[in-house]
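Reopening this ticket.

The earlier resolution said the output was attached, but the attachment link was broken on my side. Pasting everything inline this time so it's all in one place.
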Amino acid sequence: MNVNDIVAEKIAAARRRAEETKRRRAALTAARQRGLAHRHAAKLRRQADRGDTPTTDEPTVAQQATTDDLRGAEDHAGVGQPPTAVTETVTDDDIVVEVTEAEWHAAASRSLARLGLTYAELEDQARRRDFVSAQAQVLWVSIGGTINTQLLEDQ
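Inline output:
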């Protein structure tokens, strides 16, 4: 074996490690985005159930940390349909909240109205990666790609 063969093997091994690292990071990022989408959807449902409306334009520390970490969050893989069941741990017992597609779209519609946006405007902001507010970006992470615009228009 000569020096060129050894160098070529080391380069190939480094490329394999780099590829594996990219795949692992992509899988973790996709899982994180799915988790965040489910978390935000649950938050929207809780707010809709309580009738909460945001009272300030300033994002909370948690929202700011989330939005700072979510540049390009519209690429959250695996989120193609509205969630049908979300499990939250409140105590030792698990509570399962089931949401129909109509309820999902109603919550999305209320959230869009609260921000003064249409789904098309929010989608355009996501495409440009230039959201008008942190709340708009969080909403996109929650509902982006899961909305049937015909059902949204019917409401």
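Reporter confirms the inline version is readable. Strands lie at 85-89, 94-98. Residues 74 and 126 are 6 Å apart (CA to CA).
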